[in-house]
């Protein structure tokens, strides 16, 4: 089947644009810039929509299980014996509600983690455009099915678990696909900064998901799922018609890590008059990429899981990401609940809106992490600095976040800024660099596998964090225990980078000498 082949076809939408004045008569330089921008924009929107679609669960928790004592039921509704829980949604209306809601998160996240290892290999073998668009449309479908329970009065725990498991599998297509597409177009120059800015899609998606879900949560929580589902489904169609995941499909230069270069090959550019050059050290010539594409395609071999694991740094960053995603996903899925529980005045919508400050901080933290990595060339040290500062920020937020609204806002922004730095850097620039490591000897199809291994391992941590939060949140002083656990996770993430930091320090000293 064509869909199961690694082909370099031109999407219908782009093919139509190439026949119009939009792309028909532009120079190779402008064509390259246009396609790079197009890939960045589409993958940004795509992965933002993935995160937007998974955010409603954390917002809706506050109405699936709530204290109904101060609420008034509709006339004729008998609440005898269930005065505290009559307004909650069965099966999340019992004393074990937090545990069940934590299990709901983990069903999605463990499925997502399993899917990451599977889809990483598939992403090397399947056209990324098909891979992403199918994943997005099915993610939208299962998001809608979760919301459908509201209108069809479904109260089966098995139904919610099955929907979450299937949603997690299809959501796992997003990250390997997006990173592979961007990695195919961009070389290593300023990769940390470019991907640090691009990586803001994670936080933008969370913010959009919080605001959209929060807008409907108090009167029709089904729409909290249905609206994001419709958006990601629509963007899946847009991706199918316009994403060009490989430069060779449209005759554009390929980044230097994708082909073996001859001396000065980056200076050769084929144009109509043979005189124009692309001043871009990350790219080689159109003619070079075109003439070698067939031979290069023969050299491309999808690497094995075990070969990818043996790439230096993959395991360290994978397990470090385990702990940073544990921290981030605990906030992603439980922050609105924590905010509502720790305040006497916040409603479900207010808690959802306030929680976006964590993601706003994360945007700036991720960009700075990428910039620092570019300036120093020391990704492990950059991550370590963030891990160190995250520990006191978590302590300060737990101890003083409730003192005043201003302090809550400031400290929540700070925690998001620091917690998201390693997350952003490891899942983008580091993954892309390792996926094009010299040890792979020219294999350009390793990127999806390396990305999937790193993010898949991190996603196990993402599943463990919310599960721990669900188990601890109902205990006396449970929130204190949870914050202490997050501090320990940050310390462990730091320790795992020790060997890489030593290697970076040695390399820096050798370079300076």
UniProtKB/TrEMBL annotation:
InterPro entries associated with the record: MFS, MFS_dom, MFS_trans_sf, Sugar_P_transporter
Pfam family, one: MFS_1
MF (Gene Ontology): transmembrane transporter activity
Record localization: Membrane
The species this protein was found in: Daphnia pulex (Water flea)
PROSITE patterns tied to this protein: MFS
Topological relation to the membrane, as annotated: Multi-pass membrane protein
Keywords: Membrane, Sugar transport, Transmembrane, Transmembrane helix, Transport
Entry's transmembrane regions: 37-53, 99-118, 130-151, 157-186, 198-217, 223-244, 314-334, 354-372, 379-397, 409-434, 446-469, 481-502
Biased composition (Low complexity): 284-294
Protein name in the entry: Sugar phosphate exchanger 3
